[in-house]
Amino acid sequence: MIITHKMAWDKCLSHQIWPAIEKGWKDEGRDVHFFWGLAAKNTSEIKQCIEKGYEWWFVDTGYLSSQITRYPEPNINDYDSTYFRIIKGGIHTNKFHVTTQDRRNILIKQGIDAEFKGWRESGDYILLCPSSPMVTHYINGLSQEDWRVKITKQIEEVTKRPVLFRNKPRPGNQWWNTNIKDDLKNAWCVLTNMSLAAIDGVLNMTPAFTHQRHVAALITSRKIEKVERPFKPGRKTVQEWLNMVANHQFTIQEIEDGLAFDTLKVQYQNGG
Fold first, then answer.
1. Contacts of 33 by beta carbon, 8 Å cutoff, 6+ apart
2. What is the DSSP letter of 36?
């Protein structure tokens, strides 16, 4: 049975995605739960799924996608190039199955940045980009501010490079109407827990440090004490990782048509 956990807010994008899931996901005779983000009761209900051994999938904005309008309410501007990630048993995937470049080629043709351009060999500062307060608490058990203070202290113990803090752009804060690419231009590296800012870094020649459960964990560093020697994998490895990422995100139409189900069944065929 396909169980989509509904959100009370009628503007939530999940209200457009759940009908597609319910139509395009094949019922294989067991309960399968779907959650949009970590808001409302999702965190506690995900915990119940984990404790009881239920299969669950996490749905959220895509890794490589056209941008949606978020405020004052979410809106999809281009349905053909707006993708949503669908992840089994976590908020990110790191199931690295080598796949073809076909889906990533589609993104590139749509004008979505999905090309690896190499690594920068210089930089002035560490760009610190936290996840949302909700994700930070879920992953790290800390408030966003406590996480920032803790990580900044750890960075300052191992390097003299200054730390530039960048939070998620929200109406009224100092990052609203700014582009992360501008902050990445002179960054030595970008450091986050689970934010997609790590992907922005990789696509803009900036090595990253992430949590081990991040989608980019396979191509990024983990230990802050190595901040002066960030991991910079080769082009082939990064390109294959980008192909994997492209195979974990889908448009609403692709979800409804069953392409998401068929593709992800292959990605997780080894029981991942």
1. 3, 5, 45, 49, 54, 55, 56, 57
2. E
Q: How large is the C-alpha radius of gyration of the chain?
A: 18
Dig out the tokens for 209 from the structure: 């440090």
Boundaries of domain holding 260: 2-110+248-267
- Assess whether 98 and 129 both reside in one domain: no
Four-residue CA torsion sign, 187, 192, 195, 198: positive
The answer on 103 and 16 residing in a single domain is yes
Quickly count: other Cβ atoms within 10 Å of residue 141's Cβ. Answer: 9
117 inside domain: no
For 10, list phi and psi in degrees, rounded to 5: -75, -10
At residue 86, the 3 state secondary structure works out as strand
Does the residue 116 lie in any domain?
Answer: no
Tokens of 182: 């501008």
Residue 19: how many CB atoms within 10 A of its CB? 14
Reported as a single tens digit per residue, the pLDDT across 196-253 is 999 999 999 999 999 999 999 999 999 999 999 999 999 999 999 999 999 999 999 9
**pLDDT at residue 171 in the model:** 92
177 with 89, same domain: the answer is no
pLDDT tens for residues 222-233?
Answer: 999 999 999 999
What does the pLDDT average to over 31-60?
Answer: 96
Give yes or no for residue 182 having a pLDDT over 90: yes
Q: Is 115 a member of any domain? A: no
pLDDT band at 271; cut points 50, 70, 90: very low
Beta bridge partners of 75: 69
Residue 101 lies in a domain: yes
Do 62 and 245 touch, CB atoms closer than 8 A?
Answer: no
